[in-house]
Amino acid sequence: MIQVLIVDDEVLCAEGVKCTVDWKKLGVDKVYTAYSMKQAQKVFEEQEIHIILCDVEMPKGSGFDLLKWVKDKKLTPVSILLTSYAEFHYAKQAIELGVIEYLLKPIEQGELLEVFQKAVQTVIEKREKEKNVRLAGYWNEAERSRVQHFWRAVLSKEIDQDSTAIMGQAQREHLVFNENNRYLPILFEVFASDTNRDWTDLAETLQYSLQEAEYNEWEQVVLAYHDNCLLSIISCAGDFQEYDKKLREGCNSFVRNCRKKHNLLAACYMGEFRESGELARQYEKLLQLERNNVTEYAGVFDYRSVQTINYTRPNIEYWTDLFTEGNYEKAYNEIEIYVNNLACENRVNGEVLNNIFHDVLQAFYIAVDRKGVQAHLLFQDEESLKLYKSATNSVRDFKCWAYYMIQKASAYVELAANKDKVITRVKQYIKANLNEELNRKQLAEYVYLSCDYLSRIFKQETGVQLTEYITQKRIQEAKRLLKETDRTIGEIAFSVGYSNWAYFSKVFREKNGETPAQFRCHYRSGR
């Protein structure tokens, strides 16, 4: 579909052009007219215009003003200007605005037809070019996807880890693969100081930083199999030592760009040039190196620098005693000093941090259990689970988890120690949920205590067993409803937590010496 707009403040001129040309023969579907810049702008806002014929001299906005407005709106119609004056500066402005023809009035019909034929052909060619660019984009995207899928299959060992087998698979998938090349994997990682940043944004930043680096010929950049990492596979046919040097310079440039331009710490973990059959093994070593970088050191690391660190168990018993005694701040300070010292001495990696995490967790669970608090219920909220999952990612994440865990637990341990507050919370919960099923386990979970501990302190503080108290409150509410409402016995039974009407009547009679119906009757007869 092709649409034309004719703009001229002389109505007869505009309409004359519209009536003169055989638009259907040209392949034009719709022709609009406007008699001022304002009217033309309205047409552009409502319709998609492909060709515009515009008079230069118009009051309240010239043809040049209109074309500048069109350009500012990022619209790209084929433009033709019409004027009564052969002024040089007019022609110069027309060229600057991308006008394809500059016509002088009066214009002959044949010349006008030729100009519009040229404009229509320009529209058709422009559409074809846009289509080809779009198709090329689709093709390139599909090709990138195919290549990424192939390398992921290599890295995940879906293809036999043999260079000949890998080359054969590449040939079957019609991918360019040189059997004489050697391949080097590089794993890029970023440490975001803002933990709320989305990984999609980080991935884009990562790829952009790679392009900005001094060495920008990164090949086969693919998303790795876990967050905040990208993997690049570099191929080289020879002169590996020189190429390796250039790659290291590029990696250092990438690390600098991340820090300077994006306020991100970044690390590069480099393999070495080997046959394709060794890529998966190198990748596993790079991941191990990445997991062991728990101190979030920025820089360029060689996969051959993986080292074993022996774990020396800290004084967990002392930390347990600090937790038990309620000295939470000191407990956290001791843990923080311990891991900071390990980090400064380069004696902590992923495995060591994982061991520390489980030892601290054990000490903490022992301490809160002594207080009667159920730790597994205390940390079921979304934030607790999030910090728990990331605790061994880095020393920073571990300290965040430890601080949150200790702060939250200390508040609930103090609550557990304050029996009056615990009993008040339990009573309030019972009152608000009389129509629901209530039991010891449910109430204990509500205040993060063990069933036995809650039952014991409840009896000590109230002189009544917890289950008996619940029954008393149910019957008390039932008596109120029998007095003040006309609801049926069955409805009242259900509203105070009894699904069985007969059982409700039995319990009511045991507590009051009469059935619910008798109680209501006696109450009302006494009015």
Automatic annotation (TrEMBL):
Positions of the Response regulatory domain: 3-120
Positions of the HTH araC/xylS-type domain: 424-522
SMART domains: HTH_ARAC, REC
Domain of life according to the entry: Bacteria
Entry GO MF terms: DNA-binding transcription factor activity; sequence-specific DNA binding
Listed SUPFAM superfamilies: CheY-like (SSF52172), Homeodomain-like (SSF46689)
A biological process term (GO) from this entry: phosphorelay signal transduction system
Gene3D superfamilies with a match to the protein in the record: 3.40.50.2300, Homeodomain-like (1.10.10.60)
Keyword set, alphabetical order: DNA-binding, Phosphoprotein, Transcription, Transcription regulation
Positions bearing 4-aspartylphosphate: D55
InterPro entries reported in the protein's UniProt record: CheY-like_superfamily, Homeodomain-like_sf, HTH_AraC, HTH_AraC-typ_CS, Sig_transdc_resp-reg_receiver, Tscrpt_reg_AraC-type_HTH
Chain's role: May play the central regulatory role in sporulation. It may be an element of the effector pathway responsible for the activation of sporulation genes in response to nutritional stress. Spo0A may act in concert with spo0H (a sigma factor) to control the expression of some genes that are critical to the sporulation process.
Protein name in the entry: Stage 0 sporulation protein A homolog
